[in-house]
Amino acid sequence: MVEQAVSKLQQDQLIRLAQTLRELEERYRCLLGVLLIRKEQVRRGETKMLNAGQEDERACLQRIAELDELRGQLVSELAGSNQINGPEISIDAVLPLADAGLARDLHSARVALRKTLQTVQAEYAVLQQVGESLFAHVTSLLQRIRTFGVGSAVYSRNGRVNGNRPLISGVDLRT
Q1: Which of 48, 47, 37 has the alpha carbon at shortest distance from 131?
Q2: What single DSSP character describes residue 168?
Q3: Residue 139: inside a domain, yes or no?
Q4: Can you give the residue range of the structural domain that contains 69?
Q5: Does residue 34 belong to any structural domain of this protein?
Q6: CA distances to 25, 34, 51 from 55, in Å
Q7: Which neighbouring-strand residues pair with 155?
């Protein structure tokens, strides 16, 4: 009788784990949508719109963190109740506890989540690379302005006109 109750509890936890994985994948797809919009805004040069999606991104990331904590908790509980030990207990370790249909569902949810997560990571990497490239470009422009500007002492270190120094300039009176 007790063994059936534990089995029922484990099955309920496995079902919740499958639901959590599906919702995690859905939240990562939401985050991917936000990233793709941001990438398009950068491509179009719509700098004023870049901050518009931050609240959506923050909400996605907050829910992802909650779901990921729940996922870890469910896997730990399942592993603990079945004496599954190891440095990092994964979904693969608790997969044999599920019946065949639920195991297939868990496996497909895990594969979909992994694929979506890899896509999100790739898009974040692209945005990071674009940001670094734009930053390097602007820094280079400011350096050129400082070096080849009106006078070498006109611009301060942060790229602003230094008002404390005399401005060296000339007027061509022949033309």
Answers
A1: 47
A2: P
A3: no
A4: 2-112
A5: yes
A6: 19, 10, 8
A7: 161
